[in-house]
Amino acid sequence: EENYQPCADFIAETMVTPQKKVHEGKIEAPQLNGVALDQTWFVTKFTLENDPTLHNYLGLQGEQNRGKLAESFLRPTRWKDYCDHISKNNCKINDGVAVRPPNNDNENDRFFVEGLYTGHFRKTPQNDCDTNPNNCTGHFADFPCGWTSYFKQQSHHLGIYLESNGNEKNGGYTYTELQEMWMAASVTKSNFMGIWWTPEKLFQQFQGTHAEMMRVQLTSTTEECQANRISRDDICSDDYSDRIGDPRGSCSEPLFLMEKVISAGLYDATYLQDDTTTATQSPSYEFLKLFRITAYQQNVMLDNWLKMGSQREAVCQWVVDNIEYLEETFIPRTYPRVLKEASDSGSLYHAALTIACIAAVLVLCVGLAVYYNRTRRTIKVAQVEFLFLILCGSFTISIGAIIKAISPTDASCIASAWLIDIGYTLELVPLIVKIAAINRLMQAAQKMKRVTLNRTSLFGAVVIFLFVIIIFQGLWTGLDPLQKEAQYLLSPPKMSEDDNVVFVSYHCSSNSSIWQYISTGWTLLLLVCESVLAFQSRNLRQDFNESQVLAFMIYSHVVFVLIRAILLLAPIDDRKIVMSRVLSIVYSIDTIMAMIIYFISKFFMNDNNKSTLSSTLQQKPPDAKKASFVNELKPIAELEAGVKPAPNKTICDCCGRKLDSEEVKPLV
């Protein structure tokens, strides 16, 4: 992308840490990485073999050594300059130094090109002490601007007559040019001195060779010297006095302890992500915090790099050779981890599945009992068709509970949600419709009004509620379907032989939990409606009054719905499969309680109860108004008792008119 900015979470080696970024909270406080960087002056080994006095600043400083430095350290020559000014044939013929002349601007300024230009060191007017006895200098290779180097301050105040002649403002050379000059000095065996550091690849490459980089001993480092160093900005200042600085700052450089930097974002990505658990946390942050490496170990990697030609292979080989050291020292506890699938043979799994199966069998048994006793008055008054709708809903819930108890798949996740919501709708809505119809009928009867209830319209109300929940489930499935999702759990201590086992289990999950809340809220809404209607029917005659039974049933449902809500809101993120099976048990027990409270109690009711509507109608009404009410309800009771009312026998007490049997219609 056009706006992409390169970034990194970890810098393994740095000399300068931006403290502003630390204060802004973008990076953590730097930590030592174990490497001590040694940056100082170096000279080729064969040079010291010829003149050991060059090993110490005492053999370099003073006018008495000016000529020696100018004669020893000649100026390196660029390829084009060699061909134009030194080669007798302008490099048209291979003369052992240059195979050919440079072909482009890039080659013009090269100090060394393997196989084409060996490099050449020559005596320039700056090295001629006969002509310039007070200004002649030997050559020194300094760092470029932007790099930390105190060569100018050191050489000036120590009286060491060396000079860097690169194209940088401070006379320094680029990193590539510095490498080429060291290579040219090695190939041509020309004396060479410059600033360098270790551990580093080029330094390691020359180890053990005739051109090995040997340290030059400067004055000892002191606190006063450190306090009087020139600043980084002064290294390439236009003002020469700024570049040479204070004489007190001319000592050698101390070992610099390298630091590592970790971004604050790496911690956030490791520990603060919503979908990250202890079992899924990457060990990278802890590993990088613990990781240390010595200069010797880094040099071994550099040796591997030189042998293999690949940085990656060099590091990998070092890791292979030191794997035990890394595991014992830096790899955090519980890593590396072993992934295992959690077993479904736990007690909770068996309990959930067993209770769900018991609920399903109980519903089937109750259904058979209702069918067998369908002619009993207690069953007929409760409306057989509506009872079977309720049983169908309960059976659907129990099947959903069975599916929820077993190991999930994408299909079973969706199926269980559909079955449970449709099941509760089929269980509760018929009761709501029936109670509402009875309330309407009784209220009309008390007002001496005749009401005709269409059975089709009652079932139509159930269908409408089903249609609503089907639309909701369709939206859920289409927009954010429940899917099988893995959950990883790190084994607790002493649970297994090792504490690095990660058990994976599976549960059903959507991107948003709002769907679960709506589902639970839908069931709660139906219970509220049922509660209101049951309360309104509390004063009905016992023939139609189910308020007490419904009160117990609603109370039971509400308790289990509240348990569902608590489980949804509870922070059980580490064991979601447990919550799934607990919910299965909740659905199953809820269904069992509904069967016991509403259905089984009906089988123990006495059809000849004296408080029934039929026996009440045999009593003499106290006045004409109530006699009319009784005459209105008597055919209903006879129908309920299985007695067909005689035609043309019904008389209105108000007007004395005979009513045809067709005018007396069942209320339910």
Short description:
This protein is an alpha+beta fold.
Walkthrough of the structure:
It is a single chain. 49% of the residues lie in helices and 10% in strands. It has 668 residues and is of the alpha+beta class. The strands form 5 sheets. Strands 1, 2, 7, 8 and 9 form a 5-stranded antiparallel beta sheet that branches. A 3-stranded mixed beta sheet has the order 10-12-11. Strand 13 and strand 14 form a beta hairpin. Helix 19 runs antiparallel to helix 20. The radius of gyration is 48 Å and the shape is rod-shaped. The chain starts with 9 loop residues before the first strand and ends in a 9-residue tail after the last strand. The relative contact order is 0.08. Mean pLDDT is 82; it is low at 609-668.
Shape: rod-shaped
Strand content: 5-15%
Please describe the biggest sheet, giving its number of strands, its sense, and whether it closes into a barrel.
5 strands, antiparallel
Distance between the termini: 72 Å
Which bin fits the share of residues in helices? 40-55%
Low-confidence stretches: 609-668
How would you describe this structure in keywords?
alpha+beta, three-stranded mixed sheet, single chain, five-stranded antiparallel sheet, 668 residues, 10% strand
Helix/strand layout:
Elements: E1 10-14, H1 19-23, E2 31-44, H2 45-50, H3 66-72, E3 75-77, H4 79-86, H5 105-108, E4 120-122, E5 138-139, H6 151-158, E6 162-163, H7 175-188, E7 193-198, H8 201-206, E8 213-215, H9 223-227, H10 240-244, E9 256-262, H11 264-271, H12 284-290, H13 295-308, H14 311-321, H15 323-329, E10 338-341, H16 347-372, H17 377-381, H18 384-405, H19 410-446, H20 455-479, E11 483-490, E12 501-509, H21 514-536, H22 547-569, H23 576-603, H24 613-617, H25 624-640, E13 650-651, E14 658-659
